[in-house]
Design a protein that fits this description.
heterodimer, A: mainly alpha, 0% strand, globular, B: mainly alpha, 70% helix, metal-binding (chain B), Hemoglobin_b (chain B)
């Protein structure tokens, strides 16, 4: 399910439009991940406050979203571009890759509530494919 | 048995109160067929499903979207026993329709995305949690009679 030229264009156009809201998108998606899927909180036992709107959630949400935005620029070689981030997730963070699907789902929910007119069915399929490819590339160094 | 808090019941009822079955049903099914194109295998009799525009305009998709939401309403009305309420529906999906249960989650996710576009910031994290819990119970009940 690799990205066609049409997918890449749809992804780039959409994310260029929404990039300025990176912190809102990322922090909201992370907040919902922690809240709706409480098992994900196990990765953040070192945080004082895991509630939506907490400064740590906001800051980390932006970090995650900046990662997604940088991946938009790497669509011609996601595996290569995300190698270092994959090593980080595989060897240091050791987040089970099953969780990538969870945050992806919440990214889609947040993008659709924030940008209902732009997040059409066609944009939805391209973004879903893109996020799946990003997850695959992030999983690359796990084993 | 599934336990529902008063807040969860209110949240789920609240979402239903805001649902235009025709619009949300049509768009959810359309998104499912567009985002997961292999799901079209179950709709051979629906005519033109070749692209997003065709799917969105397809009257059979629209009609079926309403059927799906009416099915969900049954679960809403029987929240304390969705498992048994859905026993024959589950049997039907298994034996007659032969739908891979994986698809129930795919359609659920599309429904959640569409509801997010309608409710926007009203679709708070706790409403999302209650709604997804409801859908998870529905999905589980629908998958139960498979053999």
């Amino acid at each position: 399910m690799s990205l066609s030229a049409k997918d890449k264009l749809a992804v780039k156009t959409f994310f260029d439009k929404v990039a300025s809201k990176a912190e809102d998108i990322g922090s909201e998606a992370l907040a919902r991940t922690l809240f709706v899927y409480p098992q994900t909180k196990t990765y953040f036992s070192h945080w004082a406050d895991l509630s939506p709107g907490s400064p740590q959630v906001k800051k980390h949400g932006l970090t995650v979203m900046n990662g997604v935005l940088s991946a938009v620029g790497m669509m011609d070689d996601l595996k290569g571009g995300l190698l270092t981030l994959s090593e980080l997730h595989a060897f240091m963070l050791r987040i089970d890759p099953a969780n990538f699907k969870i945050i992806n789902h919440n990214l889609l929910v947040v993008l659709s509530l924030m940008f209902p007119e732009d997040f059409t069915a066609e944009v939805h399929v391209s973004v879903d494919k893109f996020l799946a490819q990003v997850s695959l590339s992030l999983s690359e160094k796990y084993r | 048995m599934v336990e529902w808090t008063a807040e969860e019941r209110a949240a789920i009822q609240g979402v239903f109160n805001k649902l235009d079955y025709e619009s949300v049903g049509r768009e959810s099914l359309t998104r499912c067929l567009v985002v997961y194109p292999w799901t079209r295998r179950y709709f051979g009799g629906f005519g033109n499903l070749f692209n997003a525009e065709a799917i969105m305009a397809n009257p059979k998709v629209a009609a079926h979207g309403i059927v799906v939401l009416q099915g969900l309403e049954k679960a809403l009305k029987n929240m304390d026993d969705i498992k048994n309420t859905y026993a024959s529906l589950s049997e039907f999906h298994s034996v007659k329709l032969q739908v891979d249960p994986v698809n129930f989650q795919l359609l659920s996710d599309c429904l959640t995305v569409v509801i997010a576009t309608r409710l926007r910031t009203e679709f708070t994290p706790d409403i999302q949690a209650a709604w997804q819990k409801f859908l998870a119970v529905v999905v589980s009940a629908l998958s139960r009679q498979y053999h």
